[in-house]
Design a protein that fits this description.
Order of helices and strands: HHEHHEEHEHHEEHEHEEHEHHEE
CATH architecture of the largest domain: Orthogonal Bundle
Number of domains: 3
CATH topology of the largest domain: Arc Repressor Mutant, subunit A
Distance between the termini: 67 Å
CATH superfamily of the largest domain: Winged helix-like DNA-binding domain superfamily/Winged helix DNA-binding domain
Structural class: alpha+beta
Largest sheet: 3 strands, antiparallel
Mean pLDDT: 91
Strand content: 15-25%
CATH class of the largest domain: Mainly Alpha
Helix content: 40-55%
Strand order of the largest sheet: 1-3-2
Number of strands: 12
C-alpha cells in the first residue's frame, strides 16, 4: 500500500486544501505522489534521499516513477556527488519568469554591465540551496537557452553591452590615462574622471577588465594589460641570465618608481612568474 503521510503535519479539521491534498495522494499513483512532493519543495529542490523518507519507500522503488516523470517533462534531475536533486517544471518556470523580470530591470539600470552576478541570484531565489546545486540550476537554464552566462555573470539571452557614445568616451578616458601613465601605475582614485559619475566609470572599467584590456595589479592598482605582458617577457628574459631579481632592478628596468616596481613584482608573484626568496625585496623565478 501507499503511505500517504508517514510524518504528517497537524492540519485543521475540514480544511478544504488539506482534504484535497490527501485525496490527491490517495487517488494518485506513486508517480503522482512523488511529483506532488517535488512540486511542494519548490525552489529548495527535493533530494532523492529526502523523498524516500517522506514517501516511506526505498530509493530503488521510487526510481522508475521518477524516470517516468522525467520522461514526461514534469521534473528535472540534477545528479551531484552526494545526492540526486529533483526540480519541478512549475517551480523552474516560475523562477525563470522572475529572473527574466529582474534581469530586464537590471539591464535597463546598468547598461554597461554584462549582467547580474550569480551570487546575487543565489541570495534572491535559492538561499537554502547549496552553491554547487545552484550552479547546476543556472547551467540548466543556460543549456535550455533561457539565459546566458559570462563567467560569474548571468544575463538575458542575446544581451550585449551597448557601447554607445558615453561608453566609448569613458573607455577612451581610461585607456588614454593608463597608456600615458606607462609603468607609473595608477590607483583608480588618481584618475581624473572628467565629471563622469564614478559608478558608471566603474562599470566601464569592469568591462575593460573582463575584456582583458586593463589589468588590476592588486585591489587598487590599474594598468594596461599589454604593459604587464611586456613586463612578464622582460622579467623572464632577465631570469634566463640571472638568478636573483630585486625591486631596484625592476625600478630601473621599467624606468619607474620603487613603489610601482613593488606593484609590478607583486603582480608577477600573483601570476607565478616570480616568488619571494629571503628578503622582502628579492625574487627568484617561480619555475
Amino acid at each position: 500500500g501507499i503511505v500517504l503521510e508517514p510524518n504528517p503535519k497537524k492540519k485543521k479539521r475540514f480544511n478544504e486544501a488539506a482534504i484535497e491534498e490527501l485525496n490527491r495522494k490517495e487517488s494518485g499513483s506513486l508517480a503522482d505522489v512523488c511529483e506532488f512532493h517535488i512540486r511542494e519543495k519548490g525552489e529548495e529542490l527535493m533530494t532523492l534521499s529526502d523523498l524516500a523518507k517522506v514517501m516511506a519507500h526505498s530509493q530503488e522503488e521510487l526510481l522508475p516513477y521518477l524516470e517516468e516523470l522525467k520522461a514526461a517533462g514534469s521534473i528535472y534531475q540534477l545528479t551531484m556527488k552526494k545526492d540526486t536533486y529533483y526540480w519541478h517544471k512549475d517551480s523552474m518556470y516560475r523562477m525563470q519568469q522572475d529572473m527574466t523580470r529582474d534581469l530586464t530591470r537590471y539591464h535597463e539600470k546598468y547598461p554597461y554591465r554584462y549582467g547580474m552576478r550569480k551570487a546575487e541570484f543565489h541570495n534572491m531565489y535559492m538561499k537554502k540551496v547549496k552553491q554547487n546545486v545552484f550552479d547546476e540550476c543556472m547551467k540548466l537554464y543556460v543549456d535550455q537557452g533561457s539565459f546566458q552566462a559570462n563567467g560569474e555573470f548571468m544575463s538575458l539571452k542575446g544581451f550585449s553591452v551597448t557601447k554607445d557614445e558615453t561608453y566609448l568616451a569613458i573607455e577612451k578616458l581610461l585607456t588614454d590615462t593608463l597608456e600615458n601613465a606607462g609603468y607609473e601605475i595608477l590607483r583608480f582614485n588618481e584618475i581624473d574622471l572628467k565629471g563622469y559619475p564614478e559608478p558608471v566609470v566603474m562599470d566601464v572599467l569592469q568591462m575593460l577588465l573582463l575584456e582583458e584590456k586593463v589589468v588590476r595589479c592588486s585591489e587598487e592598482w590599474l594598468t594596461m594589460k599589454h604593459y604587464m605582458d611586456e613586463a612578464k617577457e622582460k622579467i623572464e628574459a632577465f631570469f634566463a641570465e640571472n638568478d636573483l631579481l630585486t625591486f631596484i632592478q625592476v625600478r630601473d628596468m621599467f624606468g619607474t618608481s620603487r613603489k610601482c616596481a613593488k606593484v609590478i613584482v607583486e603582480y608577477m608573484d600573483s601570476i607565478k612568474v616570480t616568488k619571494k626568496l629571503g628578503a622582502e625585496t628579492e625574487r627568484v623565478a617561480a619555475k
